[in-house]
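@channel sequence for tomorrow's demo:
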Amino acid sequence: MNRRKFLAYGMMGGAVTVLGATESAVGQVAPTVVYELDIEPVDVEMIDGKKVYMLLYYSRGSGTPTPRPVLTATEGDRVTIRVRNNAPEAHRFQIPGVTGASITSILPGRTREVTFTAPVGGTYLYLDPLNAPVYRLLGLHGAFIVKPKNGGLTLGGKPTPYSTSMHTPALNAVFDAFGTPRFPGNPWVPNGIGRDLIWLFSQVDPALNRKVELGQVVDPASVVSTFVPRYFTINGLSGFDLDGDDTVCPKGYEGQPTLIRTLNAGLARHSPHIHGNHVMLLSGVRTNGQIVVRDNIFEVDVWSMAPLERKDVLLPFEKPPDVPAAKWPPVQEPFPMRYVMHCHTEMSQTAGGGNYPQGLVTHWELLGPRQV
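structure tokens (generated this afternoon):
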């Protein structure tokens, strides 16, 4: 093993570097976005204090290296991703659903790169597909976010997370309704602080990680039937470590709708359930990884997340429906109001033998009534 690092239970992050421009096919200048990543073997401290061997992508460049970096681009950008492999075995890199975004083999100690055109706006998952699902489960995954050109505006001029070519009448109707009597307050603000969040679900089976750490041969075909997750995470964190974290926990005032991009990089199916408001299920993915915007958008308080699934939901930050209009804003109930998000896959609510809530659980905060 070339290097071993210790990582206190860490979050996702990442910053983009723009290194010039290229000429597009239509004669326009397309920005070139460059990311440099390292594949690192690390010892990660879990919610119960125990350390587990993992493999993680780290951002490289200026500043402090960040595990599981969020990669971002705008539709049409030329994107270059360089990956250096500091692990003792070969690895790969891929963004399912993105044409050309794949590196077939990165030998130990070597660096390889891929350049591709950023696809339509939406939420994507990058990962190591080698020996699937082994290396993905050991931590080699992260979120790739593509912003639509020109804000993905609806017919009414409201911004959305999706390219206009993907819009459905239902999507236009939802985003145009924000800031109207149906959803009093503001439209969705794509660059607003806390208005666009990521919940990246995964699970950890320390027995599987230990086998890879010791260099034992792991048959990928046997992993599904033998996988026994002990830790359940959102963005690499569990339980109390998720409490109030601004990168995970939605916080805002009435009328400040927030997009939550949910991805499942693990092997267990999850059923996130949110209290206080219903969310609007906006999108899903086809089996080839391409994003599909729903043509029938309705409110749900729980949604299913199969392995490798990606779904965007919108939390409207409206008056909780069980509060009478005549009693809003409340006098006796203090702000902020906190509402839990937990998973209806009950095993995910525990971690390392602990009791609820020490697993895949967080909350959202309604800071106060609508700001005028």
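heads up for whoever presents: The chain has two domains: 5-148, 150-198+217-366.
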